[in-house]
Amino acid sequence: MKERVQQVIDKIRPLLQRDGGDIQLVDVVDGIVKVRLQGACGSCPMSAMTLKMGVEKQIKQEIPEIKEVVSV
User: Fold this and answer.
1) What is the structure's pLDDT at 47?
2) H or E element at residue 70
3) What is d(CA 63, CA 23) in angstroms, rounded to the nearest whole number?
4) 53/6: higher pLDDT
5) Which of 23, 24, 40, 43 could form a disulfide with 36 if both were Cys (CB 3.0 to 4.6 A apart)?
6) What is the pTM of this model?
7) Residue 55's domain is classified under what CATH number?
8) How far is 48 from 41, CA to CA, in rounded Å?
9) Which residue segment(s) compose the domain that 40 sits in?
10) CA-to-CA dists, residue 49 to 9, 30, 57, 59, angstroms
């Protein structure tokens, strides 16, 4: 499961890097994906929306077993 999530994150990463940010997969436990937003994304006031409307939406679309994506 973690490898599948990492593949999706690798697709999303260039979009975040283009805006000076990045994302790191921390863990996947019981359908909950834990990520760490870095760079500009770590301090951006819109990071919560990016996480839910961008990252979570894409991961859940490709891996329906995922329940939620959270930032740690």
Assistant:
1) 85
2) strand 68-71
3) 18
4) 6
5) 24
6) 0.90
7) 3.30.300.130
8) 9
9) 2-71
10) 16, 23, 11, 14
User: How many other CB atoms sit within 10 Å of the CB of residue 5?
Assistant: 20
Here the tokens at position 46 are: 């819109």
Residue 38 backbone phi and psi in degrees, to 5: -125, 170
* pLDDT score of 48: 86
If DSSP codes are grouped into helix, strand and coil, which group holds residue 26? Answer: strand
pLDDT tens for 8-59 read 999 999 989 998 999 999 999 999 999 999 988 888 788 888 888 899 999 9
State how many domains the chain has.
1
The span from the first CA to the last CA of the chain, in angstroms, equals: 19
